[in-house]
Amino acid sequence: SRINEGVMVNTSTESAAGPSPELLARAFNAAPNGFVLVDKAGLIVAANEALARMFGCTVDALTGSSVDALLPGPLRTEHAGLRDSFMAHPEPRPMGAGRVLFARHADGHDFPVEIGLNPLPAAQGLLVLASVVDISERLGLESAFRGMFDASPYGQLIVDDAGHIVMANRVLAESLGHNRAALAGQPLEMLLPERYRPRHGALMHGYTLTGEARMMGQGRDLTALHADGTELPVEIGLSRVRWNRQLSTLVVISDISVRKRLELELRQVNADLQEFTYVASHDLRSPLRGIADLIEWIGADLGEEVPADVTRNLQRVNQRIQRMDRLIDDLLRYARAGRAATEFTQVDLHALVKGILELQPPPPGFTVQLELDVPPLQTARVPLETVLRNLLSNVLKHHDRPQGHITVRASVDDVHCRIEVEDDGPGVPEQARARIFKLFQTLTSSERGGSGIGLALTKRLVEVHGGRIDVQSPVRDGRGACFRFDWPRFKRRTSHDQV
Fold this sequence. Notes:
The chain has helices spanning 21-30, 49-55, 59-62, 73-88, 136-151, 170-175, 180-183, 197-210, 257-302, 308-336, 349-359, 381-398, 454-464, and strands at 34-38, 44-47, 93-94, 101-104, 110-122, 125-134, 155-159, 165-168, 214-216, 222-225, 231-243, 246-255, 345-347, 366-371, 377-379, 404-412, 416-423, 468-472, 481-488. The chain is α+β, with helices and mostly antiparallel strands. 21% of the residues are buried. The model is unreliable at 1-15, 445-449 and 494-499 (pLDDT under 50).
């Protein structure tokens, strides 16, 4: 091997000081990294197979040629000066520290490399042993990671084990009101409220010892410090990554202030609604019962000889009392519908609808067609049954003919079961399609029998269980309406399930 020529002073087969030159030559050629020996004039004394493969040529072609041929054109003119500088002060060191170096392949393309330099005394003078590593793949992975890091819709930081920010993405900087470049090198504590800082160092140290990917501060409300001094609620995920050859921590920070505000508003609305309905139930039912008792006593005092007009008016009062009592019950049901049911069971949709029709059979002259050949649902039975009962009752109540046809059909996708209740009634006017799902809204002002809560309750039940509902009208020939809603097929874990 050419590495023996003029490099090894001891040419004996065995040496008491160490392995033979032949063994070292084989190790040189078998090394997985590229190695090249260069003399003071810049000529290649020896190169191994890994380096030859890296540059797309043979060892014989490299030996004796100028090392400058392995460099991109612009670097060749200045390389002689750099080589002389190294020869004047030879010491092991990386070449081009802090910069990405490039080499020239035999086919003309440039590729990134890392180069380490080591002076090596030899018979013909000082040689330089250069180790060359192709870092194209590593830079490609780093570039891909940086691209995902920068483009992430979530705020992200990389923090070293000393607790300093290595880099931050745009979303993080904007959400916390900082200049992105100015964050680099700053202590992570600057993003924490003052009260968290005394414990933060110990917590981060403990995390670096375990290193498992996890959410930070589970069960507690975490906040981050904005540049203007205000705090915003966040969720924080931690994971260990290797960046720039060092183990670091990837911190993912999600601003959840909008979600927190909506959750708070929803809880407040539900609490206000429940408080109102329970108070209304107590404050209205008592006087209603008193009025009902008075009407009963008046009827008893009048005896049997009561004028027909008086009897009719007393009956009308009773009807209104009963209607108010039903309205209070409907309000209570609407308030209780603000929370998803948690008792899940397997529900056969066809059997469920058949059971509803047996308890509430349609009037003579009406037919109901069932197209419910779908797999059973893993869901809460009672709210789904309430929704279907309300829709079927609504269809029958608003039909304008003595005969009618109702179709109940279902289809499934990966997540939801779509259920449709279609009729051939008068339909729903376009201007009323959104209004009918609101509280105390009826289709026409002449509807005295309804409270205007049924469809509002239906919509509330569907949405609180993760679905949505709408109405399509007309269906055909200018008539009919189709109420359709999506209902989850499988049990979903919600924030109500978490203790």
